[in-house]
Amino acid sequence: MAVNVNSTQTGSEKYLRRDAILGAGKSLDLVSMCCWWRTSVTPLWSWAAILDISNGSDNDFLIELKNATSGMEFWHSPVTGGTLLYDSATGMSANTWYFSGFTRRQSDNSSKAYIGTEGATPTEYSMTGSGTLSASPSPPDQNLMIGWDPWNEDFAGDIAHVRVWEAFLSGAEMQAEAKSAQAVRRANLAGEYRFTSGNLTLDSSGNGRTLTAYNSPTWVADPIIRVAQPPFRRSPNRLWTR
């Protein structure tokens, strides 16, 4: 299922939030997140936050749509000695479901971005720019925002299958997540949000990290998660099998 967070920039923005998504006092030194999303309109601001984990000041882990035609940005903070991010050069199409994933491991300066479409394997991208990942402060706690960030960079559209881990997912793991309607990696799963009809705030990770909904976001149909099937083959008894 998916949630519609079609914001209006009027002070009545629709979004969901979970404080201390990684647990009390945890930093952003080791984290991964992913989701599916689509938009039908040009974002009303220059930036539109899809998923953000932040303490609201000097710490940020953000997937955002730059605008409806110029692509996406995957943003880190803090970074020492410059800026470390990934800007997609490919424009995103309206009314199209996209998979986006983001990973961060401060200990060895590792970070990857992932972008894909329905039925396709997500492409892996490396960060660009100068600088290295800095240890993030802890506390304050790191808070998850879905469709919004503390700088009012609101997203207008639908978001589905949100997952957050206190772990660094490999490329193979992130690609597997894109093909599943439920979290594949259960180890170190901090929060999983399937946005089931009638219960948009439920955490399916087992950690009880329920979301808080602001200004009544609504349920909508989600993307079709297509998992490749082996071809049909004819067996000796002339029956078609997989």
The number of distinct helices, counting runs of at least 4 residues, comes to: 1
Number of domains: 1
Question: Fraction of residues in helices?
Answer: under 10%
Mean pLDDT metric: 83
**Biggest sheet record:** 8 strands, antiparallel
Shape call: globular
CATH topology: Jelly Rolls
Roughly what fraction of the amino acids lie in strands?
35-45%
Structural class, judged by helices and strands? mainly beta
> Rg, please?
18 Å
**What is the CATH class name?**
Mainly Beta
Order of helices and strands: EEEEEEEEEEEEEEHEEEEE
What's the number of extended β-strand segments?
A: 19
The first-to-last residue Cα distance is: 29 Å
CATH architect. name: Sandwich
How would you summarize the topology of this molecule?
Elements (H helix, E strand, L loop, with lengths): L1 E3 L10 E4 L11 E9 L9 E7 L5 E8 L3 E7 L1 E2 L4 E3 L10 E8 L4 E8 L5 E4 L5 E2 L9 E4 L11 E8 L5 H8 L10 E5 L18 E3 L3 E3 L12 E2 L5 E2 L1
Antiparallel strand pairs: 1-14, 1-17, 2-13, 2-16, 3-9, 3-14, 4-5, 4-13, 5-6, 6-8, 7-12, 9-10, 10-11, 14-15, 18-19
In summary, what is this structure?
This protein is mainly β and 242 residues long. The chain has one helix at 171-178, and strands at residues 2-4, 15-18, 30-38, 48-54, 60-67, 71-77, 79-80, 85-87, 98-105, 110-117, 123-126, 132-133, 143-146, 158-165, 189-193, 212-214, 218-220, 233-234, 240-241.
